Amino acid sequence: MKVMKILLCVFMLGALLLPMTVFADTMVDDNFVDEIGEIDCPYGTPTIDGVINTAEGWSAAQYIDKTNTDGCWGGEEVVITGNIYRAWDKDNLYIAADISVPEYTICTGVDDIETDNVTGNMPGWNGDVFVYSVDPLQALLNNGFNNDAAPWYCFGLFEDGTVKTYRTHFNDADITEQVKGLGAQTATGWRFEVALPWTLLCADTAEYSFGDAPLTPEITAKAGNKISGAMIYYDRVFDPEQNGMITGSRYVTIAKTLPDGTPGIMCSGWILQAHGMHFMLSGGPVDDNGAADGDGGAGETNNGGTNTNTNTNTNTNTNTNNNNTNKPANNNSSANKGNSTGSSSPQTYDGFGYAAIALFVAAIALHFISKKRSATR
Fold first, then answer.
1. Who's near 262: CB < 8 A, 6+ residues apart?
2. Which one-letter DSSP state was computed for residue 104?
């Protein structure tokens, strides 16, 4: 009987230590080096035709890979690589990307793979999806929405070359008619270009904040302003066990450190205080005094009372090693995505669930042992 109790105690101790080990292994990412941080977003009006031509006004390429993108929300190693481009004018914020991924899945319709049980929203489409989570002027962050998700604009490529946009986390809807987008499949993945109207971004931010962040295009589309955001990439793969498509993982251009000092890889990657990619608007038309709009010259408009400071950010830790530009989009397929659970929750929670079950079983066993021993006395 004494031996049995010792074995049960060892079993219970192992049940407690196992999830801690799993948790530590999942949350520490040796590949992640630093956030992308602040990157230039030049004034320009590129043609949205699905062909990324930097001569049309796009920025230099911002390279993304596992050193500045993390799989902390999803539990898989980052396997995508690519280049992100941006531009702006008085009407739109322009985003383009050329993504390489080991297993690319084109979209055919609205998402029927999963409902995201972490955030409560779907990523819109049923193939690979490039999500742009955006907080213009950090207006939402500065109004206390730190642990919420900013509005998501979910871009998916379809067979006809159309890039459709689905908005989630706020007034969920297909908003393709408001966002012009085109793209194409490539030998290693896909590319796309989209134009997000400032009127849409500002109206969504103002309504999302219940009027506390009353942004307008005139306030927001100015040189010197910061458009805080993140890429959240949904990597869809075929799972032979389920004989269907699942979400292999999600990859986030996450902040290295949150404002409260928490490491970015230890938080929920979708919250807006974890944004790790900030577009700094530059160039643009000049005001009546011959100065560039947004440089603080006479006649400049403030940010509408949202208490946002677009020139400083305690959450930005830019490392020149991570602001890599024009790197080739390598096709890195080292990760084994076939082991994914298909769940959008970090897989660390499974370890705690198993531990709870093990402890429950051990407690019942101890209870019966005690009863049996009492009965024999």
1. none
2. -
Q: Any idea what DSSP says for residue 64? A: E
Residue showing tokens 């075929």: 238
Measured between its terminal Cα atoms, the distance across the chain in Å is: 14
CB 189 within 8 A of CB 148: no
Measure the CA–CA gap between 225 and 269, rounded to whole angstroms.
24
pLDDT in tens, 145-175: 888 889 999 999 999 999 999 998 888 899 9
Span 107-152, pLDDT tens digits: 999 887 766 555 555 788 999 999 999 999 999 999 988 888 899 9
- pTM (whole model) above 0.90: no
What is the DSSP pairing of strand 180-185 with strand 226-239? Answer: unpaired
Helix axis angle, 348-376 to 2-27, nearest 10°: 170
DSSP three-state, residue 4: helix
Q: Please tell me the distance from the alpha carbon of residue 94 to that of residue 48, in angstroms, as a whole number.
A: 9
Q: What is the largest CA-CA distance in the chain?
A: 98
| Nearest partner of 63 among 365, 349, 334, 319, judged by Cα | 319
